[in-house]
From TrEMBL:
This is Putative sperm flagellar protein 1-like. It comes from Stichopus japonicus (Sea cucumber). Signal peptide: none annotated. GO terms for biological process: regulation of cytoskeleton organization. GO terms for cellular component: axoneme. Residues 130-183 are annotated as: Disordered. Residues 205-232 form a coiled coil. Keywords: Cell projection, Cilium, Coiled coil, Flagellum. GO terms for molecular function: microtubule binding. Pfam families: CH_2. Residues 15-120 form the Calponin-homology (CH) domain.
Length: 254
C-alpha cells in the first residue's frame, strides 16, 4: 500500500471532488453538526462514526471521545489506525494525523476521500456475506441502531459538556428534516374522517394540506441551498489560505 502522506496522494482535491465529498458526508448521520469540516473532524470522533455508519461491526464508538488537545486527538486517531483502519487496509502516517489534529486546511478532505474509497472497496469484497436487506454479521450496514444509550450520551453530551470535550453547539445542524410542527399537523389532518365533514370544511382541509406540503418542499429546498453555500464558503476559505501561503512564500524570496 502506498504511504498516505506521499506527494501524489496528498494533492489537494479539485472543486468537483470536494463537492462530491461534501455531499457524501452530508448523507451520513453524525452525532455533531458539520459546520467546519477541518475542525469538526480533527479529533477523529466523526471519522469513527463515518466508518461505523457503513461497517458498524468493526468500530466500537465508545473508544472515541471528543477532544480539544492535540494529544487526545492523536490518541483517537491512533486507535482508529490500530483497531479500525487495519481491517480495511488503510493507514494514516503520524505526520498526516498531526496535520489533521492541528486543523491544517485541505488534509482531512484528502483522507476522507481515501477512506471513502477503502470503505467502498471493503463493502464490495464482502458483498457475498451481506444479506439482501443490508445486514452484515447480524448488524445493519449504515445504521446507528446498535449504538447503546450510553454511547449516545458520550457522543452528544447534554447540558454542560464533559471535561476536555468541545462545547456543545448552540444551534442544531441544518439537516434533512421537515419542521416537526408541520409534520404533526399534516398527520392530524390525514386522520380526520372527512366523510362526516361539510363540503366547505373538506375543501378548506385540502387547501391547508396543499399549503403544508408546499411549505415543506420550500424548507427542504432552502436547507439544500444552505448546505451548498456552507460547502462553497469552506471551499473559498481553503483557496484563500492557499493563496495567502503562496504570497508569503513569494514575499520571503525577495
Amino acid at each position: 500500500m502506498k504511504d498516505t502522506d506521499s506527494k501524489d496522494e496528498m494533492t489537494a482535491l479539485d472543486d468537483q471532488q470536494l463537492q462530491e465529498l461534501y455531499a457524501w458526508v452530508d448523507e451520513i448521520t453524525l452525532s455533531r453538526p458539520k459546520r467546519n469540516i477541518t475542525r469538526d473532524f480533527s479529533d477523529g470522533v466523526l471519522v469513527a462514526e463515518v466508518v461505523h455508519f457503513f461497517i458498524p461491526r468493526i468500530v466500537e464508538l465508545h473508544n472515541y471521545t471528543p477532544a480539544n488537545s492535540t494529544m487526545q486527538k492523536m490518541g483517537n486517531w491512533g486507535t482508529l489506525n490500530r483497531k479500525v483502519f487495519t481491517k480495511i487496509n488503510f493507514n494514516i502516517p503520524e505526520s498526516v494525523i498531526r496535520s489533521i489534529c492541528n486543523c491544517k486546511a485541505g488534509v482531512i478532505e484528502v483522507i476522507l476521500l481515501q477512506l471513502r474509497q477503502k470503505i467502498e472497496k471493503y463493502l464490495g469484497k464482502n458483498k457475498p456475506n451481506m444479506s439482501p436487506d443490508g445486514y452484515y454479521g447480524g448488524q445493519e450496514v449504515g445504521s446507528f441502531s446498535d449504538r447503546s444509550e450510553k454511547h449516545k450520551r458520550k457522543l452528544v453530551p447534554a447540558g454542560k459538556p464533559p471535561k476536555h470535550a468541545a462545547p456543545a453547539p448552540k444551534a442544531p445542524t441544518v439537516h434533512h428534516h421537515s419542521p416537526p410542527s408541520n409534520l404533526a399537523k399534516a398527520r392530524s389532518l390525514t386522520h380526520i374522517n372527512r366523510s362526516d365533514l361539510p363540503p366547505e370544511i373538506r375543501d378548506l382541509l385540502d387547501e391547508k394540506e396543499q399549503a403544508l406540503l408546499a411549505s415543506q418542499e420550500t424548507v427542504q429546498i432552502l436547507q439544500a441551498k444552505v448546505r451548498r453555500l456552507e460547502n462553497l464558503l469552506h471551499l473559498k476559505d481553503v483557496r484563500i489560505e492557499e493563496v495567502t501561503k503562496k504570497m508569503q512564500q513569494y514575499d520571503g524570496r525577495y
